[in-house]
Amino acid sequence: MAHHHQHDHTGTGTDTEIDWAEMAALLESEAELFTPLYERALGWLAKEVTEPGLIVDAGSGPGVISCLFAEVFEGARIMAVDGSAPLLERAAERAARYGVGDRFGTLAGELPGVLDELEYPADLLWASRSVHHLGDQRAALAAHAARLAPGGTLAVMEGGLPTRYLPRDIGIGRPGLQARLDAVQADWFTHMRTELPGSVAHTEDWPALLTAAGLHHARSRTFLLDLPAPVTDRARAYVVATLGYVRERLADGLDAEDRATLDRLLDPDDAASLHHRPDLFVLAAHTVHTAVRPV
What we know:
Number of helices: 9
Distance between the termini: 31 Å
Largest sheet: 7 strands, mixed
Helix content: 25-40%
Oligomer: single chain
Structural class: alpha/beta
Order of helices and strands: HHEHEHEEHEHHEHHE
Radius of gyration: 19 Å
Number of strands: 7
Strand content: 15-25%
């Protein structure tokens, strides 16, 4: 399954199945909150990729970034590709709302094989945190690269830093809660990768993997989302939803004290909760790796 989720991955030690359609609202609100980061990333790409005819968003999810591509590249046709038909329906509805439906299409199917169904090669193929849901990431990148037009660019958003919401010491529980959540999520992510069909372990050197796919001029750049305290109601709601999802799916990997701290953070009646804290912020760093198909 492919997606566009800007999450820090969550799950218990054994539950690695993700229902993307069920997460549609969270996926959409996250991507909307992260729009300033994506706008900077797309602005960087626009300096490298001039007047693309076809842009493919591989793992588009509900289409927030797909529609941003339509805004930034006004002459391009956008094709949103995802394994979830309900998410693609949301993407098409969003494109219509934003007035870009006339040059917006969708393609449902599992990556990377579904890319073979594209009618035309892509001038720009974007994959935001979708490649890591494919068992053999190296083979997947080669399949993505094969769908590029000569001189076309593959842009992969993978890596960066875990998102931060809270100070190290939040006044309740043991300091360093988010670092411990990171460790549990990293273990879950490794487990998720091993359970994927055809899973192959590769060193996640993305420029090297892009080069191995036959592409040239690999480059990387990291983009920041910095929403300092005090945050907007929308950012606060995003953090509440995200950590609520973490609490629901990560509980087994945490000790009793950290579970109790999370419960307090999620309790709207607790003065120390996420609902009321003045020190809540959102700080994220996402890395984009690009490379070009030889002419």
